[in-house]
Automatic annotation (TrEMBL):
TM region positions: 6-27, 34-53, 59-83, 95-116, 136-160, 192-211, 217-236, 243-264
Biological process, per Gene Ontology: amino acid transport
Alphabetic keyword roster: Amino-acid transport, Cell membrane, Membrane, Transmembrane, Transmembrane helix, Transport
Pfam families: BPD_transp_2 (PF02653)
Record organism: Acidimicrobium ferrooxidans (strain DSM 10331 / JCM 15462 / NBRC 103882 / ICP)
Keyword Cell membrane: yes
Origin: domain of life: Bacteria
Molecular function terms, GO-annotated: transmembrane transporter activity
Major location (coarse): membrane
InterPro entries: ABC_transp_permease, BCAA_transport_permease
UniProt membrane topology term: Multi-pass membrane protein
Protein name (Swiss-Prot/TrEMBL): Inner-membrane translocator
Length: 291
C-alpha cells in the first residue's frame, strides 16, 4: 500500500508537469487551428535560458525561471511572426503547416544544441531530503512543481473567463471569422496566444527538468508525444480537457511502473493515445467550440 501511495505522489507531480505543457499546446491549437510540432523546442528554450540565467548569470532560480518563461514566450511569437504567419495568410492547409512546424522543430532543437551543447545539464538546486505530506514523500522541488501548476491552472481559468483577452480567445476558438467580424483584433489575440502558449511550454520545460533532474536539448521533445496524448485524450483544443487528460496520463504513466519496467512507462501514454483515437477520437470533452 505504501509503495502505491508513493507512486501516486510521483504521478501527481508528473501530471502537474504535463498539465502545464498540455494546456499551452491546447490553447494554441484552439485559437490557430493547426498542430505545432515545434512545441518541444519551446520547452528546451525555457529549460536552457533558465539554466543560463541561474548558473551563468547567478540569478536566483525563481528569477531565472521567470526569464526562461518570458524568453520561450517571445521565441514562440517570433517564430509565428517570421515563419508561420506568412503561411497562414496564404491560406496554407493544416497538413502543410504541420510539416512546416516539424521542420521548425528540427531547426530550433539543433540551434539549441549549437548554443548549449549536446551534454546533460542540471539546475543548481540541491535535492534535499524528501518531505512527508500525509502518505506522500516528495522533495521540495516536486512540491513546488505541483503548487506552481495548480496556481497556473487557476490563472488560465481566470484568464479565459474573466478577461477580455480570454473571451477573445474563446470567441476565435469557436468561430474565428465571426470573431473578426464582431470587431475582435484577431492578429493581436493570436500573438498573445502564441506568447502564452510558448510561456507555458517554457514553464513546462523547467518543471520537467526539475522532475528529471538532468536534461538536454531533446528532453522536452521526447516528452512531446506524452503531451499530445494528454491533449488528444481531453479533446484537441479544449483547455479543461487538457487538464483532465494530463491528470489521467500522468497517473497512468507513474502507476504503470508498479507492474512494468519504468523504462516502458512512457509507452503507456502512447497506448492511451491509440485507444483514444480508436474509441473516442474527439476526446473526453466533445462539446461545441474548443477553448
Amino acid at each position: 500500500m505504501s509503495l502505491f501511495l508513493l507512486t501516486l505522489g510521483f504521478g501527481i507531480v508528473t501530471s502537474a508537469v504535463l498539465a502545464l505543457a498540455a494546456v499551452g499546446l491546447s490553447l494554441q491549437f484552439g485559437v490557430t487551428n493547426y498542430v505545432n510540432f515545434a512545441y518541444g523546442a519551446y520547452l528546451a528554450v525555457g529549460m536552457f535560458v533558465t539554466y543560463t540565467a541561474s548558473v551563468g548569470l547567478h540569478l536566483p532560480f525563481w528569477l531565472g525561471g521567470l526569464v526562461g518563461v518570458i524568453a520561450s514566450g517571445l521565441a514562440a511569437v517570433a517564430v509565428d511572426v517570421a515563419v508561420l504567419e506568412p503561411f497562414v495568410r496564404r491560406g496554407t492547409s493544416g497538413f502543410f503547416l504541420l510539416i512546416v512546424t516539424f521542420g521548425l522543430s528540427l531547426i530550433l532543437l539543433n540551434l539549441v544544441q549549437a548554443i548549449w551543447g549536446v551534454g546533460f545539464d542540471r539546475y543548481p538546486i540541491a535535492a534535499g531530503n524528501p518531505l512527508h505530506l500525509g502518505p506522500f514523500s516528495l522533495t521540495a522541488a516536486q512540491i513546488g512543481v505541483v503548487i506552481v501548476a495548480a496556481v497556473v491552472m487557476v490563472g488560465v481559468h481566470l484568464l479565459l473567463t474573466r478577461t477580455r483577452l480570454g473571451m477573445a480567445m474563446r470567441a476565435m476558438s469557436d468561430n474565428a471569422p465571426l470573431a473578426a467580424a464582431s470587431g475582435i483584433d484577431t492578429r493581436r489575440t493570436t500573438r498573445w496566444t502564441w506568447f502564452l502558449s510558448g510561456a507555458l511550454a517554457g514553464l513546462g520545460g523547467i518543471t520537467l527538468a526539475l522532475n528529471t533532474v538532468e536534461f538536454q536539448a531533446f528532453t522536452g521533445n521526447t516528452f512531446l508525444f506524452v503531451i499530445f496524448a494528454a491533449v488528444i485524450l481531453g479533446g484537441i483544443g479544449k483547455i479543461y480537457g487538457a487538464m483532465v487528460g494530463a491528470l489521467v496520463i500522468g497517473l497512468a504513466i507513474s502507476l504503470s511502473t508498479l507492474v512494468i519496467s519504468a523504462a516502458y512507462s512512457l509507452d503507456v501514454a502512447f497506448l492511451v493515445l491509440v485507444l483514444t483515437l480508436l474509441i473516442r477520437p474527439q476526446g473526453i470533452f466533445a462539446t461545441a467550440g474548443k477553448a
